[in-house]
Structures are given as C-alpha cells and as structure tokens.
Amino acid sequence: MDTLMSIAKHYETGETLPEEIYQKLLAAGTFRAGTLSLRQLTWSFIASSFAVLAIFLQLYYYHLFSALSDPAKLYNDLRWNVTRL
Asked: Where would you find the membrane-spanning parts of this chain (predicted)?
C-alpha cells in the first residue's frame, strides 16, 4: 500500500489516492479469478478425456487385430502411451 500511495498522486494538485478508490483497486485484483480457474479446470478435463479416449481406442485396436495374444506387449505399449516410462 505504501508504494502505491507514494506514487499515486494527482498530477496537478498532488493529492494522494483516496482510500475508497484504493479499496476498489484491491477488490478488482481478484475479479474473475474464479472464472479463470474454472476455465483451466475445463481445459484439463477436456485434455484428460482425450487421453482416456486414446487409451480405449488403442485397446479396441489391439482387440480388433488380435494383439491380445501377447498381453505383455499390450501392457508395455499402454504403459508407454500413458506414462512415457
């Protein structure tokens, strides 16, 4: 507060920033913070949904082409696609 009040002066009169306006500036600092958090949560949900869809499609692909005859290969491929380990 001290920093803002020391530089926030009227250019002609030198009057400092009124406390009421300062409080409004503080309140505006968190304006829409919840909306931005919700937006990020939405994007993360979409990204994780695509990842789950990719896993199910891979399972379907392996099942369709009878790759389940080698369960170790299926496990290792899925592990690699999900974790990259």
From this structure: 41-61
